[in-house]
Amino acid sequence: MGTRQMIELLGLGRQHGYQRLEQAVEGALKMDCKDAAAVRYLITAETLKRGHAPLAEVPALARYDRPLPVMDEYDRLVGAEVQPCQEVRTRRSHYPSVLQDAAYPGHCRAF
Fold first, then answer.
1. Is residue 77 assigned to a domain?
2. Which carries the bigger pLDDT value, residue 108 or residue 64?
3. Total domain count for the chain?
4. What is the reported pTM?
5. Which of 29, 51, 61, 92 sees the fewest Cβ atoms within 10 Å?
């Protein structure tokens, strides 16, 4: 940390209190930050908090509302067990057994 950053930190201590400065420096060091900007942020973070803006109802956007998709068919597909197709079984018989066992066992893949 350079001389200018130390002077900035001393100014922050004068402005916000040295106890608060010490807490901010400790917090910055815990986060492995060795920059005066990080300490400045930690000291002023409480004043930076702002409330959320209230949600506004926009009736014109209601026309874009869509129903949620029905996922029943997808759930049924995911729960089903995959069987290799007949074409793959016949093609796989032409390859050495080591390759047959290693190449996507139980999946329908054409070689």
1. no
2. 64
3. 1
4. 0.43
5. 51
pLDDT > 70 fraction of the chain, expressed in percent and rounded: 71
Sort 21 into a burial class: Cβ within 10 Å, 0-12 / 13-18 / 19+. buried
Does residue 84 contact residue 108 with C-beta atoms inside 8 Å?
yes
Q: 12: closest CA among 32, 34, 42, 53?
A: 42
Q: Look up the domain containing 31 and give its range.
A: 3-48
62 within some domain: no
Q: Would residue 60 count as lying in a domain?
A: no
In a domain, 78, yes or no: no
- Structural tokens at position 37: 């900007």
109: closest CA among 85, 81, 90, 73? 85
What's the token pair of residue 21?
């400065």
pLDDT tens for residues 97-111? Answer: 555 555 555 555 444
